[in-house]
Amino acid sequence: MIKRWLAQYASPFALDKMGIMGMNQRNISYISRYNPRRLYPLVDDKLETKRIALDADVTVPDLIGVIEFQHQVSSLLEKIKDRPGFCIKPAKGSGGKGIVVIVSHDGQHFIKPSGKGESIVDLERHVSNILAGLFSLGGKPDVALIEALIDFDEVFDGFSYEGVPDSRVIVFKGFPVMAMMRLSTKASDGKANLHQGAVGVGLDINTGKAIRAVQFNQPVRYHPDTGRDLLELKVPYWELLLSLSSSCYEMSGLGYIGTDMVLDKQKGPMLLELNARPGLAIQTANGAGLLPRLRKIEQLGKNATFSPEERVTFARKEFAASVKNKAT
Question: What is the pTM of this model?
Answer without folding.
Answer: 0.88
